[in-house]
Amino acid sequence: MSTITATAPTVSLQRFQEIRARTEKICAPLEAEDTVVQPIIDVSPPKWHMAHTTWFFETFVLQPHLPGYKLFHANYGFLFNSYYNTVGNRVQRDARSTLTRPPLRDIYAYRQHVDEHISQLLQQLDDDKAAAIMPLLELGLQHEQQHQELLITDIKYILSTNPLVPAYQAAPTKAPHTTAVAAEFLEVPGGIYSIGHQGSGFSFDNEQGVHEVLLQDVQVMNRLVTNGEYLAFIQDGGYTDFRHWLDEGLALIKAAGLKAPLYWLEQDGEWQRFSMHGLEPLDPHQPVCHLSFYEANAYATWAGKRLLTEFEWEAASQLYAPSKGNFMESELLEPAAATPGASGLQQLYGDVWEWTYSAYHPYPGFSKAPGALGEYNGKFMLNQMVLRGGSCATPQSHIRTTYRNFFHPDKRWQYNGIRLAY
Amino acid sequence: MSTITATAPTVSLQRFQEIRARTEKICAPLEAEDTVVQPIIDVSPPKWHMAHTTWFFETFVLQPHLPGYKLFHANYGFLFNSYYNTVGNRVQRDARSTLTRPPLRDIYAYRQHVDEHISQLLQQLDDDKAAAIMPLLELGLQHEQQHQELLITDIKYILSTNPLVPAYQAAPTKAPHTTAVAAEFLEVPGGIYSIGHQGSGFSFDNEQGVHEVLLQDVQVMNRLVTNGEYLAFIQDGGYTDFRHWLDEGLALIKAAGLKAPLYWLEQDGEWQRFSMHGLEPLDPHQPVCHLSFYEANAYATWAGKRLLTEFEWEAASQLYAPSKGNFMESELLEPAAATPGASGLQQLYGDVWEWTYSAYHPYPGFSKAPGALGEYNGKFMLNQMVLRGGSCATPQSHIRTTYRNFFHPDKRWQYNGIRLAY
Amino acid sequence: MSTITATAPTVSLQRFQEIRARTEKICAPLEAEDTVVQPIIDVSPPKWHMAHTTWFFETFVLQPHLPGYKLFHANYGFLFNSYYNTVGNRVQRDARSTLTRPPLRDIYAYRQHVDEHISQLLQQLDDDKAAAIMPLLELGLQHEQQHQELLITDIKYILSTNPLVPAYQAAPTKAPHTTAVAAEFLEVPGGIYSIGHQGSGFSFDNEQGVHEVLLQDVQVMNRLVTNGEYLAFIQDGGYTDFRHWLDEGLALIKAAGLKAPLYWLEQDGEWQRFSMHGLEPLDPHQPVCHLSFYEANAYATWAGKRLLTEFEWEAASQLYAPSKGNFMESELLEPAAATPGASGLQQLYGDVWEWTYSAYHPYPGFSKAPGALGEYNGKFMLNQMVLRGGSCATPQSHIRTTYRNFFHPDKRWQYNGIRLAY
Amino acid sequence: MSTITATAPTVSLQRFQEIRARTEKICAPLEAEDTVVQPIIDVSPPKWHMAHTTWFFETFVLQPHLPGYKLFHANYGFLFNSYYNTVGNRVQRDARSTLTRPPLRDIYAYRQHVDEHISQLLQQLDDDKAAAIMPLLELGLQHEQQHQELLITDIKYILSTNPLVPAYQAAPTKAPHTTAVAAEFLEVPGGIYSIGHQGSGFSFDNEQGVHEVLLQDVQVMNRLVTNGEYLAFIQDGGYTDFRHWLDEGLALIKAAGLKAPLYWLEQDGEWQRFSMHGLEPLDPHQPVCHLSFYEANAYATWAGKRLLTEFEWEAASQLYAPSKGNFMESELLEPAAATPGASGLQQLYGDVWEWTYSAYHPYPGFSKAPGALGEYNGKFMLNQMVLRGGSCATPQSHIRTTYRNFFHPDKRWQYNGIRLAY
């Protein structure tokens, strides 16, 4: 039977508190008004994220497992359920900006209330209870970490739509590396690879079902594609030459008038980019990101290369020990240029999620868990593409080699980028 | 030449301050989060209303007339212009919820800054300057009063979309009259009537151009149509019998699935209504409101009567001294039942705007003022219907016999209701 | 009581046959394939027009009044009802192109079948029956004439969407007048005018209810606005200067990218126009047509003038004997230039329908006839503007001084044009 | 290098003429009016299919290879190009119903003109020329066969939207088998399978790139899922139980109000189905078809099974010799019930295309051919699902084991059905 977590982990109170505190740290620079809007359906109000992750612990941990627990508010289940049909009715996804009430301070109170009861629960745990609760608690923390990344990308989008283009945080005083690193290609030899999660650590159901896959030889680029390389594609007429594009991608960029990645801005021949530090000149050595799959694939076609499959990526990751990644914890919140002189595959983890040419489908033997948690992943397994490796907005402890992220191919507001292969 | 104001009025500092303070009083019960959302395009964020009315004074009074005046913020012109093409680019009307910044406290500071400079300007005024400034100041206050009404209707709508259906204010401790008043019809005799504004008081350009109109005899209902009467229409199958409806109205209610006025809610055969006091049982003697023109006209057709024209309404208003009205200042913010035993035409002013069967077109001789203020009214003179008499959300000093309000016939979020004639 | 026809007319078999034959003559140049498509919702398939006018006679004349009449086909009532809710369900207006069957030849057979039975009915008529039937027959013929005009405008639109831009008919061998006629303005003096239909001839219910209207002095242009005059408006930047436009008109031309009237085409600085004779160079003296109300009104504003009201138009028509008009019977099917040296108001009838600044509302005392025929006009009395005078596609015997045509202000596919006043 | 065809085939004049004649036979029962409409964007007008397949031969064979060939009509390239950007501008896909001209008889003349010149070309062929032309001619015929299937599905859809629900052809006098065949599951053992086309016959570029794939053991159902089995799913509440559905599928059926496959009609508890023979009672043993992928997958989930991947299907097809299939040539044009007593996997070919849970992606090593023919398949390789095995509308000579058909998961108008596995 497939389960969300392979084994029963142990969640310490300290780790619980650290992860919960991080969410609030992410939201600290915001105005209350920033936390309520939903400029596009993909972007949820930050207030909603903060409440929804709390609702998750209340619904799946406290309600069933803490005797005598009283709901913080009778209606919050309706307000802050995301997509669990099993759990009942809910505010429609596109109506989350109707939630001007409860105000932000109530959400903080809600968080505190739930955190205190989780703390109380953890202090009275016997082994039997721990076996039941720990997997749920672990899932709740993994879920919270996913929403930390979404909080960052959603805040970035919300700020970008404001005509005042406010910065989320000041730019780092010491600028990141901006030296060119030559593109090289390293071989991942063909053969049978074991794909999917094994071992005792946490994993999601969608990466379980270890199975063997037969691969051909593939040459994989040593670093991510950069802004400068992508700009060359643009300047070569890349957005107007149909030969590079999948048909639906071409229709999309025509209909929407797209001419560059999200957050790029050209004025009088100068390119700028909206970042978490406000509008900045384009850094040519920074990895390109905020691209759709269509743009990533068009770039690869133009470059005479292709994207990896998710299996090739996982095989490459098994062969090449990754360099240290640029994750959320660096608090840069933007991808960083590759390091000159480094060997192996750089930037495999962190910086940007790498679009693969693999549809997000079930692994062999996949089956949904019974009940609400079975809705976590399985029902989304169509029309989306797998991304691998995490980004500069991903918590470091959240990512692993077998991790499968997934988005529709037109989505651009995540930190998604490109690695080439052939 | 048509001008916005017929003569140069004198605006006292006290009146200026009272009207400006009223706007802030209206917003006092709100959370910051309430002030930023735009659930439908018609409903502007309260924060935007507060800033836009302030921008009006800054742009049309302080900038041209206060030497050395410095803008509060260089971008606010772009952010808070509503629809004046003459003045330049602006945030699109449907993107007002992107303005999470500036935060609410900055808007209050903006209001204070402008108010202080208006105060300063008023204290150094010679006669020549007064002649130039007073009409603009008067227009600014009239404009602020219009937005006070919009603030009330928009706040009501915003709260109504919240799943928690919060009340704006507590219900009055003493309940309003709820005794039935019999419907009677009073004659307005045919003949030539003088229509349009004359005299020295303020008026808008759209009500100027006094002209004679020839009317036939008409019988006018002594009070507004009530919730109870409208409920009878619903219960008689009014929403499904095509014979009562204009063709486009029928298409609209079918497409939107409408079965009752806005804010009405039926559960298990009991009717409730969302009001500024939260959800309440339907009061049968309260005037029905939050109706489209289509619903008002369908009701009239069902009742074997018709709506008045705006000229008939104005003639009736000339003949029958109005009873004291239920305006914004009563702070009830909902229409009140008619008074038993009163004579003449009741509820002609206040309570609800009365839909007329008159298109909002220019009066003979109408011409737009040059410059930005010529955009105030003239460019909207198509596809909208005239409403007369003000509502429970209208400031009492803002309304008069010749006042022409106008909305598209499908709009329901204003306090719009029905008076019959034949 | 209002009725569709004021008195009982006598319809001769010859007139019936002539009008019915004209419909088929209009369709004679078409391919069967032309008769089935509906490129926009406004444009009905010609086959549908031919069947619907026939259904009208079958439903309202033969079924109730010819004993023993058998329906041509049990389903045609469902297929060819236009908008009469009273008569029952029907094919939705936007789905008329689903009617590939019955094929065109069946529609001709249907027409012949109904015509033969009408002929049979007319030959066995006693006086009582005639009194009941003649008004319906007359209405049926007036209705058929309305659809003749629609057939012409719809055929023009259908052909225009074809990439081959086929001509409906050859251009006339002798070119029409193309000499400039100077614009002059003739006075219609103010006073009380009697508006609406009286007398024994046919009229629609919407023009009945004779009533007096008080008008001011008005100066009326002696001819229609020409292509050349309108081109000057375009070349003066008319489509990009917001000051000329009603707000909704401006939004419309921006959203749709409109830069000229329908059927105008600019290539390399040369203007052409699609006509019933195919693509032709723009004739500067031909009346401009295929304009929206917004364009007509913007032109008038740019020219420092205005459009007439429908009452002014009718008063002008009472004072100035119209010159002979260019109607459908001339078979030119395009408006013709004004005649040099003519006196009075030219082109008042025929050539193009003249947009008025009058909403299409009920006249005082208007009431719908009971039953299906009451749906003919009344339910459309909102959001549409009145046009007067008929066009080059209007049958001459169909038009009169009091005739009220009506369309939404954005509609351009009719032969609608401009006369100025001030 | 990838090419459309692996080797140079020899196309005989007889085969060319037979395939071209079949297209016209398919269209013979149509009225001219049937051939011009496009009720949904997926469904092209039959006239367009007939012209487009002819344009293919003219553009890719006659123009480059028949010296002195004159185009039948200068504009037909613009009118009848489908999606080849390389070849130039074209009528937009959603505007094909504007092509009322050229009339059907001109399209027949066009076909005859091109056929005669192909015949002429084939009779003067030397070996060098044959090597260049034969692959194009073969591709043209394969393309024509694809459009034969589309003609059938599009005609079915067009007739189904007509309120008269006309039959395409009379029902066969001898009814097909309607005896129940028990569901059994046959094993396809795990191991390495060679996937993709090899050998000298024709194949498309999307099935080339033979490669080895590692499969697990899988149990495959011996026949297709039937109407009766699918009805049990419906009657068990299958369309309202979210647990069976992919999230986007659930949203789709809710938004569109879907409650059964396309062409199913329930009246008073009795199920009927629109077929090429008109409305018929539902046959419980006929394979279910006209389903979306979402419906197929929901059924499989409800049944506790799953769909095959395309690799499993191809492996199964290598192991089990297919029974004779029900293809276009049987002229039944509806799927037929399984044969009692047959062994192996029945209905693997013909009857209905089988949805697989494989995204339509490039095989390893896939590369687009240069020029226009490279646009044939490659640019569609996203967001679509692979279907295998052909249907009752597929020409028998067109299908093979490695053939990859592909449609978006929401498409229902093709003959698409279900085979289960576990």
UniProtKB/TrEMBL annotation, chains A, B, C, D:
<comment type="pathway">
    <text>Amino-acid biosynthesis; ergothioneine biosynthesis.</text>
</comment>
<keyword id="KW-0560">Oxidoreductase</keyword>
<dbReference type="InterPro" id="IPR016187">
    <property type="entry name" value="CTDL_fold"/>
</dbReference>
<dbReference type="GO" id="GO:0052699">
    <property type="term" value="P:ergothioneine biosynthetic process"/>
</dbReference>
<dbReference type="Pfam" id="PF12867">
    <property type="entry name" value="DinB_2"/>
</dbReference>
<dbReference type="Pfam" id="PF03781">
    <property type="entry name" value="FGE-sulfatase"/>
</dbReference>
<keyword id="KW-0408">Iron</keyword>
<feature type="domain" description="DinB-like">
    <location>
        <begin position="16"/>
        <end position="149"/>
    </location>
</feature>
<dbReference type="InterPro" id="IPR005532">
    <property type="entry name" value="SUMF_dom"/>
</dbReference>
<dbReference type="InterPro" id="IPR042095">
    <property type="entry name" value="SUMF_sf"/>
</dbReference>
<dbReference type="InterPro" id="IPR017806">
    <property type="entry name" value="EgtB"/>
</dbReference>
<dbReference type="InterPro" id="IPR024775">
    <property type="entry name" value="DinB-like"/>
</dbReference>
<feature type="domain" description="Sulfatase-modifying factor enzyme-like">
    <location>
        <begin position="339"/>
        <end position="421"/>
    </location>
</feature>
<dbReference type="InterPro" id="IPR051043">
    <property type="entry name" value="Sulfatase_Mod_Factor_Kinase"/>
</dbReference>
<feature type="domain" description="Sulfatase-modifying factor enzyme-like">
    <location>
        <begin position="183"/>
        <end position="317"/>
    </location>
</feature>
<protein>
    <submittedName>
        <fullName>Ergothioneine biosynthesis protein EgtB</fullName>
    </submittedName>
</protein>
